[in-house]
Structure formats: structure tokens, C-alpha cells
Write a structure and sequence with these properties.
Structural class: alpha/beta
Helix content: 25-40%
Strand content: 15-25%
CATH architecture of the largest domain: Alpha-Beta Barrel
CATH topology of the largest domain: TIM Barrel
Largest sheet: 6 strands, mixed
Number of domains: 4
Radius of gyration: 28 Å
Number of strands: 26
Number of helices: 23
CATH superfamily of the largest domain: Phosphatidylinositol (PI) phosphodiesterase
CATH class of the largest domain: Alpha Beta
Length: 706
């Protein structure tokens, strides 16, 4: 979890303030154990390259209060998806706080914050009658909110919005604005009784909120500037706020969800010689991940403490116990829904396996699920419990030694016996060859921790279907998964709906419950799990969950809810602080028939990243077969191809709007500055029944802190 580093200054003032007489506070009045009064602020551009800032409060309750409030600020989903206006307000606050010794705002801070196009910034400052020299400074009282907004309007004029008013007067009336909102912005799918159209008096309230000129408000009019403020507000974000919140039904069996998962969680770099870190478990869980991997090996020190590392490589080792403590600390801070600990257990020492089991029991306490729920015994035909029923619980995935269920078909029991024999042979062969391919046999202590997630060797879809053991889990490497997907696509998709299935892959998934990803696929994964309250769980599409349906992922025929999309790139604002040309690329990801890599690319702007206007011809996605699994990726690059930022937008979550270029704003990710946005237009059409459309105004990026 990352915090604006600016908050460090506030923390310093709070914890080290001097009394009125400039006397140091009496350290003898400290209350409580020192470890309970410590507060660590973790900052950095990503979860690997991080820094720690430690503070000590004078009382335990003070440290707890600060930790709680800071975490709430850092994990606020609405704040992470704030509109352009809010980002500009944050930039304004930052400028007001970064004063020099005379209490004035250095002009060089404005240059640094907004653009390296110095001439353009100077012109905007001069137009507001403000000092514009690099060594100049601005009196604090001179940079009022109104002056600041005027500066922004001069720095980044909105010619594309002015064009909307070209054939009109310089304002809209209440009636025109009401018609615009109801006919252009309103979702036509909404029931008019439950969600009635906007009334003129409600429109008047909106105009009062966004129109800066009181005289126009009195006349019932909204100016170009007021209209622009309305368009870029949170009320016109491309993703409805309710999609960011927990919005999906969490009462289906666990296997009917995609689960945010991590592979080789402990690594901070390559798996051959990279460093391992306990902190990775904290950061991964704080990001919303609900399944982490623990590669457990026998410790060879005198203390015989089990360790976590990547076996038979040069990666460093970390303490198993410290990892369990880190997981317990951060398990449910971001999401209350269950966590799966995927043990790859190579510990061939019964004594150390007993230690592992004891650490899990003692550190996790009641959060560790050691007994099955009464409604969900480990019996054939019984589904898995739901995420809702497992709130606050930690599940262990590890090999389990247990007797065969008496109700299993004879061929299944025979297959289980063969499975164990295969495992024996594989283990002996692996140990003889000194490879890391074998897991150790589970001792009784570890077996008792395993219930709903029991790994088993996959033999065939037919055998898995006959056994009806929802608590058994199969794992696939990508090559094997692609083989099954090609030969038996329908069975391949249906298999994870009955029992959890894990896939290690380099590309997006079509059906798996848990999947570990990297690179572009990692970006898609992060985008997918950004929604539904960042719970780490996404309900699989209804069409895939219905027992009366058989879904072929390679289908090109109609699926429930098939839609068409039209997208136009119009303009951008504050895309980078460099004086370079920029361009935008569009990708669509989903089913094979829906996926279109580099479907569209704009021309490159001419050394203008502050307010480039493209107004390109639209790109048409004639049909999206399964929109609930489809995502748009909108990415921005410098003219040389350097990546600036992107955003993943679920097609099914896009808020409808109008065909004309009214903007909807959309944050970009992995970017360097704060106020960047793009102005684009999409039209979405449901082929079978109704037409709706939306316009997207992408997207504010977070500013790098210093």
C-alpha cells in the first residue's frame, strides 16, 4: 500500500512537535510497549521498489489511530478513481504547501509540476498577471482558486469542447441541459419508474454546482467553462462508482469465481537469482490478491526452521514463520474474503512440517479453517462454500494424506490408487535427479490443515466429472492447458466450475478459478480485479455458470448480451510533463473471437502532450460476443514508443452516454504525473434489443512524489 510521500512531512510535525517554550517533550512519559507505538509508512512506485519510514508515537492508541486513518486514505477506491478536477485540486494544494522561506510559491515548482514546455507555462502565468521567471516567486495570497483555474484554462485550452458550442450560443439553458442529460447521458436500460429522468429543478442544482459565474446561474444558464467542469466531474466517470464498490453476488460456490492469485509471491526479481522478501506477501495481499504461493523447503540451520525459496536456484531464503506472520498481519486489510495459501511443500522433515503446522495454527488462530463447515462436508456431489460463507478465513492448499471416500465410484478409487503410485514414482525420480519437481509427503500435522483445497493429479475431464469432488483441485502448466483448450474446449471451460483449477500462464484466462500472470497479462489481471470492491473475487459470467448451457470459448455465434462498440479518440490533456509527441493505442481483450491486439492507433501529436487533439475516425468493434469477459485497453505512448500509462476498462462496466463527443473521464495506470487525461468517445450497441452509447474522458494519472 503506497502513500503520498508528502504525508511524511505532516507525520514529522505531529510526532516531533516542540512545546510553546521550545523544550523537548519528556520522553519519560511514553506509554505502552515500543513495538505497539511504532508506525511504518511504506512508499514507492510499485510493490517491489519500496522505502520504509518509521515513526514512534508516544501512546499506543495514537499510533493505531494514525495507522488506521492513513490506510483508509491510501485504500479509498473513490479517491483512486477521482476525476480530473479533483486531481487538479490536489496539485493546487501541493503548490500551496511547497512554499519557500518567505512563504511564497516558487515559480520553478509550477514548471516542475506541469510541463517542461517552459514557454507555454510562462505564457499561461503572464495571462493571469503572475510572475513567470524561473527564479521568481508568487505571493501565497495571489494564487487564489479562481486564479489557479484561470491559469489551467490558459495552459490547457479545450478547443474540442468549444467546438460543441460552435453552432450554439455560449451557453446552455436549463431545458437544453436537461434534454442533453436525459437523451444523451442517461442509460436507456434504466427503468423510468424506478429511475425517472432528470427534472429541470435537478438540472438547476447541477448547474449551480459547476457554473463559476453567479450571474449565469441566476439566468438558468451554464457556460462553456461550467459545462466542461460538469463533463470532467466524477458524475461523468466512465465507470459507475457502484462498479468500484462490492457489486457482485458473493454467495455462489468458490469455484464459480475468478480469484486474484500470485505465483512465486516471495520473489522481487527473476526466479533463478532474484531476492526473496517477506514484504512481498504484505504488498501482494494489500493489493487485493487472495491466493499466494509458499515454496517451502527444509531449513538447514541448527534451529531447523523451514524456509521459503525457489528450490535449487540462487534465490535467497526467507523465514517461513516470518511469512506466516506477515500474512496474518495483512490478510484482511483490503478484502474480508477468504485467502488461499498455496503450499508447494518440499519439506521432507516431519519435525519441520510439524513446526509449519504449529505456526499456522498459533499465528492465524481462529482465522485458519481447520474444520469443514457443517453444510459443506467433504463428500461427493457437495459444492464448495461461497466466499461470503468463508469471510475472514484462511484456507490451506497442500497435499493431504487421507482414506478414500467410500461413496466414490470404483474406477475413481482405482484411479486414486494409481495417482498415489504415480506421485511416489515421480518423487523418487525427482529426488534421484536432484530437481525441484517433487513435493514432500504431507505429515498428519499438515494434512489436518487441508480441507476444501486438496491438490490432485489430473487424469481426465470424465473422471473428474464422475467423482464430483468439488474439494479436489487440479493444476495446469500453460502448454498442457492450451492442449486441453484446443482439443476439448467445452470440457476445459466447464471443469473449473465444479472444482478450483490453477493455471500458470503468460496470457489471459477464459475459465480458470486461479491464474498467475506477468507482463501485459499482469496488467489485464490488475485491471480485472480493480472492480467489485477490490475483493479479489470476480463472479464468472452467468452464461458460463448455467448447468443447462455448454460454452465453447472459440464460438463466433451469438452469446447472451452480444454488443457492438464504436470508439473515437478525440483529445488528451496533461499526458506527460515532457515536450514530446504522443499517440494512443486501443486493444480489445476477451474471447479469441473478441480479442484484437493494436486494433487502433492515432497519429502522433506534434510535440504537444498538454492538450493534443486527434479527433480520429472511429474504430468499430462490430460485435463483442461475450462482453462480460471483454476489456478495452487504452494506452498512451511517447512518439518514440515509450509507455506513459494505460487503463483497462471492462466492456460490461462502461457507463452509457451520448454519441456526440461529450467526455467521460478515466484514470490511466502506471504513469508519472497527475492530471493526464484523454478525451474519447465510445458507442456501445446491444445487437439483440436496444441501443446505448457512452463517451469516455480518460484519465487522470497519479503524480510521482518527491
Amino acid at each position: 500500500c503506497f502513500f503520498y510521500i508528502k504525508i511524511v512531512k505532516l507525520l514529522y510535525i505531529f510526532f516531533f512537535i516542540l512545546d510553546k517554550n521550545n523544550k523537548l517533550l519528556d520522553v519519560g512519559n511514553l506509554v505502552g510497549r515500543i513495538e505497539n507505538r511504532m508506525l511504518t509508512v511504506v512508499t514507492g512506485p510499485d510493490m517491489v521498489n519500496i522505502q520504509y519510514l518509521n515513526f514512534m508515537a508516544f501512546q499506543e492508541d495514537v499510533a493505531k489511530e494514525w495507522a488506521h486513518e492513513l490506510f483508509s486514505l491510501a485504500s479509498n477506491l473513490l479517491a483512486q478513481n477521482m476525476g480530473r478536477e479533483s486531481c487538479l485540486e490536489k496539485a493546487f494544494t501541493r503548490l500551496k504547501l511547497q512554499t519557500n522561506q518567505e512563504g511564497r510559491i516558487p515559480v520553478k515548482n509550477i514548471f516542475r509540476l506541469f510541463s517542461t514546455d517552459r514557454k507555454r507555462v510562462e505564457t499561461a502565468l503572464e495571462s493571469c498577471n503572475l510572475p513567470a521567471g524561473r527564479n521568481d516567486s508568487i505571493p501565497l495570497e495571489d494564487l487564489t482558486p479562481d486564479v489557479y483555474k484561470s491559469f489551467i484554462n490558459n495552459l490547457c485550452p479545450r478547443s474540442e469542447i468549444n467546438q460543441i458550442f460552435a453552432d450554439l450560443r455560449n451557453y446552455l439553458t436549463v431545458d437544453q441541459m436537461t434534454e442533453f442529460i436525459n437523451n444523451k447521458q442517461r442509460d436507456p436500460r434504466l427503468n423510468e419508474i424506478l429511475y425517472p429522468p432528470l427534472k429541470p429543478e435537478q438540472t438547476q442544482l447541477l448547474m449551480e454546482k459547476y457554473e463559476p459565474n453567479p450571474a449565469m446561474i441566476q439566468k438558468g444558464q451554464i457556460s462553456v467553462e461550467g459545462f466542461a467542469r460538469y463533463l470532467i466531474s466524477e458524475e461523468n466517470s466512465v465507470i459507475p462508482p457502484e462498479k468500484l464498490d462490492l457489486s457482485e453476488d458473493m454467495t455462489f460456490p468458490l469455484s464459480q469465481y475468478f480469484i486474484n492469485s500470485s505465483h512465486n509471491t516471495y520473489l522481487t526479481a527473476g526466479q533463478l537469482a532474484g531476492s526473496s522478501s517477506v514484504e512481498m506477501y504484505r504488498q501482494t495481499l494489500l493489493s487485493g490478491c487472495r491466493c499466494v504461493e509458499l515454496d517451502c523447503w527444509k531449513g538447514r540451520t541448527a534451529e531447523e526452521e523451514p524456509v521459503i525459496t525457489h528450490g535449487f536456484t540462487m534465490t535467497s531464503e526467507i523465514s517461513f514463520k516470518e511469512v506466516i506472520e506477515a500474512i496474518a498481519e495483512c490478510a484482511f486489510k483490503t478484502s474480508p474474503f477468504p485467502i488461499i495459501l498455496s503450499f508447494e511443500n518440499h519439506v521432507d522433515s516431519p519435525k519441520q512440517q510439524a513446526k509449519m503446522a504449529e505456526y499456522c495454527r498459533s499465528i492465524f488462530g481462529d482465522a485458519l479453517l481447520t474444520e469443514t463447515l457443517e453444510k459443506y462436508p467433504l463428500e461427493s456431489g457437495v459444492p464448495l462454500p461461497s466466499p461470503q460463507e468463508l469471510i475472514g478465513k484462511i484456507l490451506i492448499k497442500n497435499k493431504k494424506s487421507h482414506p478414500k471416500p467410500s461413496d466414490a465410484p470404483a474406477e475413481v478409487e482405482a484411479e486414486d490408487d494409481e495417482d498415489e503410485e504415480d506421485d511416489d514414482d515421480d518423487c523418487k525420480k525427482s529426488m534421484d535427479e536432484d530437481t525441484a519437481g517433487c513435493e514432500a509427503f504431507a505429515t498428519e500435522e499438515m494434512s489436518t490443515l487441508v480441507n476444501y483445497i486438496q491438490p490432485t493429479k489430473f487424469h481426465s475431464f470424465e473422471i473428474s466429472k464422475k467423482s464430483k469432488r468439488s474439494y479436489q483441485m487440479s493444476s495446469f502448466v500453460e502448454t498442457k492447458a492450451l492442449e486441453h483448450l484446443t482439443k476439448t474446449p467445452v470440457e476445459f471451460v466447464e471443469h473449473p466450475l465444479k472444482q478450483p483449477t490453477f493455471l500458470m500462464a503468460n496470457q489471459d484466462n477464459c475459465c480458470f478459478s486461479l491464474i498467475s500472470l506477468s507482463d501485459l497479462s499482469m496488467q489485464l489481471n490488475l485491471g480485472m480485479y480493480e472492480y467489485n470492491g477490490k475483493s479479489g473475487y470476480r463472479l464468472k459470467p452467468e452464461f458460463m455458470r448455467r448447468p443447462d448451457k455448454h460454452f465453447d470459448p472459440f464460438t463466433e455465434s451469438t452469446v447472451d448480451g452480444i454488443v457492438a462498440n464504436t470508439l473515437s479518440i478525440i483529445s488528451g490533456q496533461f499526458l506527460t510533463d515532457k515536450k514530446v509527441g504522443v499517440y494512443v493505442e486501443i486493444d480489445m481483450f476477451g474471447l479469441p473471437v473478441d480479442t484484437r491486439r493494436k486494433a487502433f492507433k492515432t497519429k502522433t501529436s506534434q510535440s504537444n502532450a498538454i492538450n493534443p487533439v486527434w479527433d480520429e475516425e472511429p474504430i468499430v468493434f462490430k460485435k463483442v460476443v461475450l462482453p462480460t469477459l471483454a476489456s478495452l485497453r487504452i494506452a498512451v505512448y511517447e512518439e518514440g514508443g515509450k509507455f506513459i500509462g494505460h487503463r483497462i476498462i471492462p466492456v460490461s462496466a462502461i457507463r452509457p452516454g451520448e454519441i456526440q463527443p461529450e467526455p467521460r473521464h478515466l484514470k490511466t495506470r502506471f504513469s508519472l504525473t497527475m492530471m493526464s487525461s484523454q478525451y474519447l468517445h465510445t458507442e456501445t450497441r446491444l445487437v439483440s434489443s436496444f441501443v446505448h452509447s457512452c463517451s469516455i474522458y480518460t484519465a487522470e494519472r497519479l503524480i510521482s512524489t518527491d
